[in-house]
Amino acid sequence: MESSEAIRPEKMGPIVMKETWNTPGSLVTWERADNIYICRGERGGIVIVFLNDEMFRMKVFQNRIPDLTTTAAIMLESCVPHLFPVEETEEQLIFTTSTIRLILDKHSFGIKVENMTGKVIMQQNLISWSPRGASHTEYDMQSESHFYGLGEKSSFLDKRGEHYTNWNTDVFAPHLPEIEALYVTIPLLIHMHGDLSYGLFLDNTGRSDFDMRSHGVAFTIGCDTGAYDVYFINGPEMKDVVKRYTALTGRIALPPKWSIGYHQSRYSYMNQQEVLQLARTFREKKIPCDVIYLDIHYMDEYRVFTFDPVNFPEPQKMIAELAELGVRIVPIVDPGVKKDPKFKVYKEGVLDKHFCSRLEGDIFFGEVWPGISAFPDFSDSRTSEWWGDLHKYYTDLGIQGIWNDMNEPAVFNESKTMDLDVMHFNNGRPVTHEEYHNLYGMMMSKATYEGMAEHLQGERPFVLTRAGYAGIQRYAAVWTGDNRSFWEHMAMAIPMTLNMGLSGLAFAGPDIGGFAHHTSAQLLVRWTQMGVFFPYCRNHSSIGTMRQEPWSFGEEVENILREFIGLRYRWMPHLYNLFHEAEDCGLPVIRPLILEYPRDPHLTNLCDQFLLGENVLVAPVYRPDTDHRSIYLPEGCWIDYWDGAVQEGGRHILDAAPLHIMPMYVKAGTFVAEGPLKQYAQEEVEEMVTFHLYGAEARKGFEAGYTLYEDDGHSFNYRKGSYSELVVTAAGEAGCLKINWTYAYREYEPERERLRFALCYPFFQPARISGLSEISMEQLEEGQQGWGRNGKNGAIIVQVQDVSEGGQLVIEAEE
Ligand code: MIG
Fold first, then answer.
1. Same domain flag for 78 and 212
2. Position 279 in a domain
3. Which residues does ligand 1 sit against, CB inside 6 Å?
4. Which intervals hold domain DUF5110 (predicted)?
């Protein structure tokens, strides 16, 4: 007897139906409910929420009004909704804030944002969604449009003409321009056209795509699943967008000073003797270093929260010995927990239901380093707390930093990640992995950061992560994963890290020297020269490749690396200041020139040079056997860091760059705070700050200023007010220069006796300085007050007592 199986659908031939995408149709009604505006069309609509004058959220809905919970990216404090007047005309709904007008076209549901002079900032056209839950929107793009942001992406700085997808992926294959998704997802696109910029942040943790390539006069943003939930972030300058985006998703937590030192890593340092020997070698060779990483081989058969009993039998002793040398270790912690009923973490995880499972309850197992493993469900705070707490194992040993790897999550299977139907419990709002994927890594690092912070009792933890989502900057530094020892990858690290900075990730950087493939003497030199000015500074390389510790290529290379790593340490006060600025207002530590000079047409895609902070221009050499390079100097007067040569900006120059030199320029009228050379960030040496002033002039109109932020560098006491701000200003007059310094705030007392001012390549010759006598460099070194000339570069150095009342210097020019 036949059953209905006889007429199963597939026997009837394929049913091909064209998917029709829906649009909301025309506006039918609108209403205000508390702070939200609900605009309903014929087949769906948009909810609009203003966060302030410059930012609003638009969430598309189809049938029911969407719920307005956000992902973990959004900082709730930034989400205080505002009400603004609404005006309705025949054709439009118009919302007006103090700076922008949002205009909804009743017929097309298009949304336009104008500034108060009526210039169109943004035009969003078609909103549509597929019957299977994908959504898609189209935005106008102009001939002069340029695009930035999007976090960690390959290719150049300007994303015009590119297409990217967001799906956190472990990409060991070479990071080529055609690779659209890497380890991190930051769905923030900054659109700059003419003198206007704005940002669009798509808060969606499933797969999304940004297409600035295929549609001619439009760019599109789409997502495969979940809600179409976009934040408009106004400029008009790109800097405003970055500041506002980081107010929305959070800013970096000021890192402990040691974590912005030089880090040395290798996959793997194999045993305790090797690690200790490595640390001693740094000290013997006087190459500064703060951190050594322990890659996967430190563990007992790759079980997290263990040490290998044979190769690392005495971790506590090793860590204590390293501490005496001023070196910390940062061990790797992957999410995969080895399936082993005798392994405590696994047992606990299973019994207490901490692992990601299918809806029916069966645990998802995937293969990673430890073999078959289970993966904690960090979406649930109960599990995150458990995981965080496990880190007591490390903090008890004296560890303050953790390295999260493989947290895309990476799995050795065909899809390279967890199955899409695995569930995340998400504090009672379960979602599939398909919807949650891009958030997994960030939630792991959040759990890690919070657990470490708790157990370090007031000390700042350091977390490094490979994967992340918007907001990851609050918990971890991000490194750019498995690059290769290719010159092309060194060059690509610049735009990649710069765009990460524009996307909130101020603490980021690549593996210096390259991870896979074999580095070379020159590549290591050039990459290190550049890398010491990147926010995150770690040399890391893969098993089976040429060694790339700084001494691996003989004395000449070693000397150059020592010099440049030392430079990072001497510039630590300035660097730390920039990290403070990043915590304070979200601006990145290194910046594309376009951020500071948005009207200069030469800069829209310039990314083989960058700025450290606002005024220090770094131009790395990124090709082999090259001893010259062309450099573009933006408007203003620029001073060669190495020899003081003065260059007029607004033009290209050709600069010599022998192997021991990486071209650097400081804008005239800039202060840079330097400290003493240290072998590690918190080494106790005689403290001193030298304010280097470049290109000082004794004429009316010359001005320079700097605020030096200082605190203890390792605790959270600064958040209770224990920090200081030393404000330094310089003002020129006819025939003299006055320098003032004063503590604007001084609840933390820097431990030092003296301050120095160094006039680097001033445009005048000082004759008298505030009644101080001219003394020798030796006398200056001994601590005497006075002024002298540095024989090496001719800088004028003035030394004064560092007193809390501050002081003034009058520097009179030679007639
Ligand atoms: O699939 O832990 O990107 O830095 O050395 C390799 C071993 C796993 C990938 C990381 C790399 C690390 C390596 N890990």
1. yes
2. yes
3. 267, 295-296, 332, 405-406, 466, 481-482, 515, 540
4. 690-752
**How do residues 67-92 score in pLDDT, each as one tens digit?**
899 999 999 777 778 889 999 999 99
CA of 574 to the centre of ligand 1 (A): 32
pLDDT in tens, 741-786: 999 999 999 989 999 999 999 999 999 999 999 999 999 999 999 9
Q: What number does the ligand 1 atom closest to the CA of 405 have?
A: 10
**Encoded tokens for 550:** 């700084």
Tell me if 796 is assigned to some domain.
Answer: yes
Among residues 193, 100, 209, the alpha carbon closest in space to that of 141 is found at 193
Our answer to whether residue 408 is catalytic in this structure is: yes
What is the span of the domain harbouring residue 380?
A: 272-479
Give domain status of residue 411, yes or no.
Answer: yes
Of 229, 482, 608, 711, the catalytic one is 482
Ligand 1 center–CA 299 separation, angstroms: 14
130 is a domain residue: yes
What count of other Cβ atoms lies within 10 Å of the Cβ of residue 284? Answer: 9
Give the integer Cα–Cα distance in Å for 540 and 598. 35
Q: Between β-strands 766-769 and 786-789, what pairing exists: parallel, antiparallel or unpaired?
A: unpaired
Q: Catalytic one among 380, 408, 435, 640?
A: 408
User: For residue 707, which phi and psi values (nearest 5 degrees)?
Assistant: -120, 120
Domain CATH code at residue 800:
2.60.40.1180
Both structure tokens of 290: 């703060």
pLDDT at 642: 96
pLDDT tens profile 400-413? 999 999 999 999 99
Task: Tell which atom from ligand 1 comes closest to the C-alpha of 542.
Answer: 5
| pLDDT, position 81 | 80
- How many Å apart are CA 799 and CA 787, to the nearest integer? 6
Contact between 254 and 583 (Cβ < 8 Å): yes
Q: How many CB atoms lie within 10 A of CB 193?
A: 18
Q: Is 482 marked active-site?
A: yes
Q: Clarify whether residues 792 and 690 are in a common domain.
A: yes
The catalytic position among 209, 290, 377, 405 is 405
CATH for 280: 3.20.20.80
Atom of ligand 1 nearest to the CA of 515: 4
- Spatial separation of the C-alpha atoms in residues 204 and 225, rounded to whole Å: 8
Ligand 1 probe mutation, 403, 482, 545, most atoms within 8 A of CB: 482
Query: What are 2's two structure tokens?
Result: 């036949």
* Domains of the chain: total: 3
Q: Is the pTM of this model over 0.90?
A: yes
Each residue's pLDDT tens digit, 462-510: 999 999 999 999 999 999 999 999 999 999 999 999 999 999 999 999 9
CA 405 / ligand 1 centre spacing (Å): 7
Q: What is the pLDDT of residues 192-219, one digit of tens each?
A: 999 999 999 999 999 999 999 999 899 9
Q: What is the DSSP letter of 5?
A: G
Look up the CATH number of the domain holding residue 174: 2.60.40.1760
Q: Does 16 score more than 70 pLDDT?
A: no
Please tell me whether residues 192 and 54 are part of one structural domain: yes
The pair of structure tokens assigned to 773 is 């006598």
Question: What are the C-alpha distances in Å from 108 to residues 125, 202, 504, 616?
Answer: 8, 21, 34, 48
> What pLDDT score does 35 carry?
85
What pLDDT is attached to residue 444? 98
